[in-house]
């Protein structure tokens, strides 16, 4: 028997892995339930893959990756760590689409959630009950594109999405999950009925607004700090069949935001999706987020861009329809935008199946070798004019609108977010998301980081109460600032559900004890 209570955690891991390689050796008694040692893999190829993410900015090597085939395997791993005097850290990895190492674990174990798909995971199951109507029980390891495909087979679909669907359910629910539907339905975390969670103590807990609600609200938007989501019960509605997809080009920021705010005030009779973005020379109208325009339209927009000092704004608005509304949809869309202040003649329309619209974002392989020093902010409505003037007009122009990637800017209604969750948003009824989705050559990252820092410094100096989405900080003080009045309960929940501080260390909020 290995005296695991007195050995350091990395040594225990090493011994476990060694035991696997000598298949005949006896396993330590401390491994609960079933032999999980064989699921711990430490070959350089596997650990190297878990050392990076989509950002290509951080590399952190784990001692091993863990490939669970059941939820019990995850429970066993977390319990094993808890039983050690020096616990090892455990990071669930959805698809590693974080950009700052949030799903990494230095000298710890990265749980490759995807392996549950080949094993005995929850899968994607569509059901109905009188209290909830239609819903899907979805494994935390599943990706949203598979959720879409499966639910569409039943004529149903979730209501709130991310732009890109190849993200894991557990990963986006740990952050928020935002897109153009959030103004109407809230972020993805507002559309969950129930969760199964393996906490940092290895307890398996089912929670909802009514049952173990404290854990439910902590986990949604909780940055992976309180438990590993193994099942989420997602609200479904009848799937729409087609989408009228419209883009409007503006040369005036005030009119652009005024019209976006009008659209998000329309509620159920208005649009189903509203986003917005900037167009600059380095952030052209067609990019990896979607290729919408024909080449003729692109050159028309390029000419307009030249006569507007290289800066335009674009609203993207979508209205779903089906056979019943097919005859009236064009008129409805015309009415919706008829008094809008876009540049005359700069309205572009498409009509596509809803599945094509939702699945519009694809990232190519070249993206995987680039670095992505993204900056995502939430900006309160009261600050957007100053933000535009300082950031879009001055700071970014000084940097020659350096960013090569989409620049998103669109509003949300605060009322659609649940304040009991730890997702942090500005304290105003309407706030905007700004996404600077830079793509950079790995040796040019500094240029983009300088731009990001200048923006953050401007916001701080001017007292603008912005918040980071997909936050990344280096110091505890910054995290305390980020959570503001929620910090004390964030810490309390951590002490309750992950007292040894082993989960998602890549967020760099707590250190294992
Ligand atoms: P990972 O990066 O693997 O993990 C993220 C965090 O969650 C880590 O801390 C991890 O430990 C934790 N985690 C992972 N799985 C679980 C689980 N089952 N239980 C508990 N914790 C877990 N976000 C939006 O909101 N809207 C968008 O439109 C959007 N588009 C994107 C497009 C691209 C191309 C990329 C790269 C990212 C985009 N994101 C978007 C950001 C995305 O939501 C985050 O990167 C998120 O982390 C999801 O990625 P993932 O599933 O790979 O999670």
Automatic annotation (TrEMBL):
Residues 1-25 form the signal peptide. Its EC number is 1.5.99.12. Residues 58-239 form the FAD-binding PCMH-type domain. It catalyses: N(6)-dimethylallyladenine + A + H2O = 3-methyl-2-butenal + adenine + AH2. The keyword Oxidoreductase applies. Its cofactor is FAD. It is an enzyme of class 1 (oxidoreductase). One of its GO terms (molecular function) is cytokinin dehydrogenase activity. The keyword Oxidoreductase applies. Belongs to the oxygen-dependent FAD-linked oxidoreductase family. This is cytokinin dehydrogenase. It comes from Dorcoceras hygrometricum.
